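Q: Convert this sequence to structure tokens.
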Amino acid sequence: MKKSFYLILLLFLGIICSCNNNEVKDAQKPKTGPNGELAFHVTTDMAQKNIRLSDFVEDIQFIPLETKEECFLSNFPNVIAFYKGNVYYQEMYGGYLYRFDTAGKFLNRIGDRGEGPGEYGDPSDLYIDYKNDQIGLVSWNGTNIYDLEGNYISKRKKTNSASKIRLFSDSLYACTGFGSHYMMLENSRGELINQALPFNEQFSLLSRCPLSLLNNQTVLYRHNFYDTVYAFQGVSIKPYRIFNFGDERFTMEDYKAANIDQLAWYEYQMEHQISKLSDYFENENVAVAKIFNNDRYFTYIYQKESEKQLLVNNKDVINDVFFDGFYFEFHGRYEEYLVSKLLAEEVIKGVENANDIFSDEELQNNKYYQKLSKLASQLNEEDNPVLMLVKFKAKS
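A:
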């Protein structure tokens, strides 16, 4: 009788715990706001451990970019764009624009530095005009328009000091500016249609944060000091994704109350263990965010179809895909893939790490190791970067 009582008690407690767990999971599911925006509840204590990278990655492709004297690339790409068999590699920090094919073969460098026809200042962005099969290279002295092979066509007049531009809906330009706090929307003539200022004016680093094209109707933007992703949709600018970091959140009202500036912000967020949205990309299947908290990077993945969320501390991920430190920094999209890059020396080091960490049997059955080791045998440490195309699982 006593045994039966304890069995019933354990069963009852199990049911209660199960219900409580379900309540926690339900509470953490994304909530839809009044204007269709999706709010994610994300706190660092949600991070899962002992997760393998292959658990949430479906496929990775590697494209080694050819190394030649006329295309010795910087290791800091700003934008990597794929279109009609071309790969455009736009360097950050005053670099150049290069064109490769999708196998990584160098084709040509586009334009040159200067102020003459077809020349540009320090490039700050690159966009594709899908309707006219053209590319736009943005710099401080205007936007140069080229055909897909890199032949100069014209200069789009400098409007509203735009440093980041995405063309969408065939004729609308989503812009952020040099030293401007505004998100701006222009028409094809450069006329201002709409603008928004959802940020504290003392934080003026909008020009460092990217615009990303979700589809032909939507451009996404996130500010480096904020927890909301905004969307340009039609002529409107509105919240699209909101990251609720709970007690780790820091709102615009908090900025004003703290009375801090950009220079003091880094020390302040470290002291108060504040989470910030460091990067965000999305495609038809998943949303992927990089979150920074107290000198730690976390990766958040939202699978749209299953509404499943995954948060991992990057240091806790078992990297059984490219075997080096787990750290994604995305620079573009290609079909279902998000585009990142590895240095040649990181590829070589990854293979060495794999041999130290995993058994021979594990590596023999690992398709990524076979692919990476073959690539590493063809590289020198000083070679150009290797593009890494990452396809995340749509559901798991």
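DSSP finds six helices and 28 strands in the chain.
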